[in-house]
Amino acid sequence: MKGIKILLILCCLCFVLAPQFVLASAESESPWSTWMLFWRVVNAAALVGLLIYFLRKPLGSFFSERKTQISSDLAEAQEQREKAEALLGEYKQKLAGMEKEVEKLRAELRKSADAESAKIEVDADKLASSMVEAAKLAAEQEVRKARITLKNEAVGLAVQMAESLIREKINDTDRKRIIEDYLEKVGGMK
């Protein structure tokens, strides 16, 4: 089999190279003479024959593999398309259900927000009333402190005034008499 292929290749090379020899010997003739045209046709036929002989199996297997690949790709694409269409229908149904669910959630959120708002108002009222009570207590304490402070200052001033009056009006004899009275009272207690 290998020998036939080599012989066929050599024959084809002869056909391919023969027009070159003819062309070299017939330079004076026109390039489109009948003989020249014959060799060109033979040359082209030999080239096509060689290409068919050597490329028939690889090209045949390539095209058959390509055909099976394309058919499997088409089948896979069809399957994926069907899956995508089913998924699209499912998502459309979910989307239609989602609108209802969104409305339901909005209503629940409104109720929750209203309840929270009412709770916040109640808490704010309680806080405000406790703040008012705390402010009243703080004010009363400040008033008490101020009264005590004023009372202490008044007592202090009264003591100072009494002391200054006493110092002015009491002389040494009065002092001695007060001391003696005090000592008698203290002595009587024993």
Helix fraction, binned, reads over 70%
Radius of gyration: 64 Å
Q: Strand portion, in percent?
A: under 5%
Topology order in helix (H) and strand (E) letters: HHH
**Mean pLDDT rating:** 82
Number of helices: 3
Quickly count the domains.
2
Largest sheet: none
Uncertain runs are none
Name the overall outline.
Answer: rod-shaped
How far is the N terminus from the C terminus?
159 Å
Which structural class should the secondary elements be placed in? mainly alpha
| Topology, number of strands | 0
Write the layout of secondary structure elements.
Blueprint: H1 2-25, H2 34-169, H3 172-189
Helix pairs in contact: 1-2
Write structural notes for this entry:
- There is one protein chain.
- The chain has helices at 2-25, 34-169, 172-189.
- It is mainly α and 190 residues long.
- It has two domains: 2-150, no CATH class; 151-189.
- The N and C termini lie far apart (159 Å).
- The model has no long low-confidence stretch (mean pLDDT 82).
